[in-house]
């Protein structure tokens, strides 16, 4: 089945807007994404009347898009690829065991006919965060104190910020703006009825499984990136080096738990993530040679939430955040991405993201705190992380 001419001439932003509008109106779930370094944008729709939380192991999951929250006890969803549109090649495919329903037809008609708003916001208001700043600085100080008392080595407190627009945010247009601005990020837009609309541009891979090769990365340490800076001249402080090394150690500890000794380690090296620089180490495992056919699922369970977004050791850091952070992260710092899709699974940590509710959006950011953290600097770090989205959306 190939896409009809009518849809072909629709601007991509319009197709994305209409798909989300359809999901909201008819009760379907939608996921749109762009893999780092690729040009094509993928869009899938799950026509289930009621999307149920998923707990199936990764390997047995139907082809689709995973959307999981930070809290492992909260509901994760799989948006099944009942219908898939490659917005680059305009090719439509349906799930092999899927009976093309009247809903599919209705959806395709909707894409052609409905006209969602094309305008973008001209007036964006950022809520006053003066009080938030004091609270976050206090939270970082409490974190440093807990580290000094030996409760844990690292913790990643976070905060949120609300912004309002003078009209409902044009998600399709803004998705494309993000994809263009950040070619090396994983760009996503998800609508799940139980979770709402989320959009983001994350630099952090959690796990990938492709051609029997498992990959994960340790990404941490943050500084502002000035366009044109040569990466070989970038210097990192002891605090940032240690902070990122802890994330690497956390991953290696997970390998140790399952007695996996054969892995490749590449890095750390400095990488650009939009307006920021991070330190990154890559880990690679041959799943055939090591005889770990289910490594994706095993590592996903062990890794999430990693010490890049929660802390180390995990449990005391998690308890600390539950007690002191005072808000629900929901899907921020959860994970998301295509699973068993086109021969691979690629799940990313949901960072540099926002929850969109018509004229309002909530952006989130955290900062890795160690014994050497300076609260004011960590505050600034969360501000520039939020700017990854705020600099682009309109
Ligand atoms: C927590 C975030 O980012 C994570 C924390 C980092 C840090 O503390 O330096 C860097 C990259 C991410 O692993 C975020 O973007 O909100």
Automatic annotation (TrEMBL):
What this protein is called in its record is isochorismate synthase
Q: Which NCBIfam families match?
A: isochor_syn (TIGR00543)
Q: Which GO terms describe its molecular function?
A: isochorismate synthase activity
> Is Zinc included in the keywords of this UniProt record?
no
- The residues covered by the Chorismate-utilising enzyme C-terminal domain are 133-385
Q: Which UniProt keywords apply?
A: Isomerase
Give TM regions.
Answer: none
Q: Give the InterPro entries listed for this entry.
A: ADC_synthase, Chorismate_C, IsoChor_synthase
Q: Which Pfam families match?
A: Chorismate_bind
**Catalytic activity, EC:** 5.4.4.2
Q: Which transformation does this protein catalyse, written as a reaction? A: chorismate = isochorismate
Q: Looking at the record's lineage, which domain of life comes first?
A: Bacteria
Q: Which organism is it from?
A: Fulvivirga kasyanovii
The record's section on SUPFAM superfamilies has: ADC synthase
Q: Which family does it belong to?
A: Belongs to the isochorismate synthase family.
EC top class named in words:
isomerase
């Amino acid at each position: 089945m190939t896409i009809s001419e009518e849809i072909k001439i629709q601007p991509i932003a319009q197709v994305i807007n209409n798909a989300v509008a359809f999901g909201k109106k008819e009760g379907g779930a939608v996921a749109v994404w762009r893999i780092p370094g690729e040009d094509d944008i993928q869009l899938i729709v799950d026509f289930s009347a009621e999307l149920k939380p998923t707990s199936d192991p990764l390997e047995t999951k139907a082809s689709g898009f995973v959307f999981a929250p930070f809290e492992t006890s909260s509901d994760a969803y799989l948006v099944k690829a009942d219908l898939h549109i490659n917005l680059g090649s305009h090719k439509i495919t349906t799930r092999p065991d899927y009976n093309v329903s009247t809903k599919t037809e209705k959806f395709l008609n909707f894409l052609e006919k409905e006209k969602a708003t094309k305008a973008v916001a001209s007036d964006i208001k950022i809520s006053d965060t003066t009080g938030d700043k004091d609270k976050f600085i206090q939270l970082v100080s409490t974190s440093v104190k807990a580290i000094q008392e030996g409760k844990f080595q690292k913790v990643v407190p976070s905060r949120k910020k609300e912004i309002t627009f003078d009209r409902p945010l044009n998600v399709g247009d803004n998705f494309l703006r993000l994809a263009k601005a950040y070619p090396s990020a994983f760009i996503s837009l998800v609508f799940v009825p139980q979770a709402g609309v989320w959009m983001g541009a994350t630099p952090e891979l959690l796990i990938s499984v492709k051609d029997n090769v498992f990959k994960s990365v340790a990404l941490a340490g943050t500084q502002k990136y000035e366009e044109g800076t040569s990466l070989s001249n970038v210097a990192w402080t002891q605090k940032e080096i240690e902070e990122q090394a802890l994330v690497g150690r956390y991953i290696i500890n997970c390998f140790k738990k399952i007695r996996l000794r054969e892995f490749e380690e590449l890095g750390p090296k400095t990488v650009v993530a939009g307006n920021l620089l991070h330190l990154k180490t890559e880990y690679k495992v041959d799943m055939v040679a090591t005889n770990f056919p289910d490594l994706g699922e095993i590592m996903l369970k062990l890794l999430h939430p990693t010490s890049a977004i929660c802390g180390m050791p995990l449990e005391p850091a998690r308890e600390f955040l539950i007690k002191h952070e005072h808000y629900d992260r929901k899907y921020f710092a959860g994970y998301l991405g295509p699973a068993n899709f086109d021969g691979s699974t690629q799940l990313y940590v949901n960072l540099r993201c926002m929850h969109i509710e018509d004229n309002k959006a909530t952006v989130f950011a955290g900062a890795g705190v160690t014994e050497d953290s300076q609260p004011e600097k960590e505050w600034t770090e969360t501000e520039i992380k939020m700017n990854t989205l705020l600099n682009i959306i309109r």
